[in-house]
Amino acid sequence: SMAPPPAPQELTTVRVQDPRVQNEGSWNSYVDYKIFLHTNSKAFTAKTSCVRRRYREFVWLRRQLQKNAGLVPVPELPGKSTFFVGSTDEFIEKRRQGLQQFLEKVVQNVVLLSDSRLHLFLQSQLSVPDIEACVQGQGTQTVTEAILHYAMSNCGWVQEEENRP
Length: 165
Prior knowledge:
With 165 residues, the chain is α+β, with helices and mostly antiparallel strands. 45% of the residues lie in helices and 17% in strands. It has helices at residues 55-69, 88-106, 110-113, 116-123, 128-135, 143-153, 155-163; strands spanning 12-22, 30-39, 48-54. The protein has a 3-stranded antiparallel beta sheet, sandwiched between helices. Strand 2 and strand 3 form a beta hairpin. Helix 4 (116-123) crosses helix 5 (128-135) and helix 4 (116-123) runs parallel beside helix 6 (143-153). The mean pLDDT is 88.
């Protein structure tokens, strides 16, 4: 009898790209990064997504993942680095690379992938308080609904198109 065809390899690509300074020149300026995710894994609700997140949100995410993961080690984030020698651009690029490496390791970890916060962080544009509310069942939508709503709204892509010169 014929052997069954091999199962397709599950593959998740995650990229941290396009750092942008928001509120430039003001006291509350910050840099956010585009997180692009493309996957064929059943673990994810949306097969493609695109959101923008800032470093502070990554710090929150890591803390939450660590709380829930118990003894499973959570990958490190690039340092907070209050003292940095070199240009701002260099710092931002180093941080971008570090954030990408962090997410690449996180999405390969089955335990971390079971945390709904990670999915809302990667596949919706909900704020941190709204992610918390959603995960605790106090949001207007379930986790899956929130992600599908964002995917259908196509925000990530529309935003990219509008900003092209």
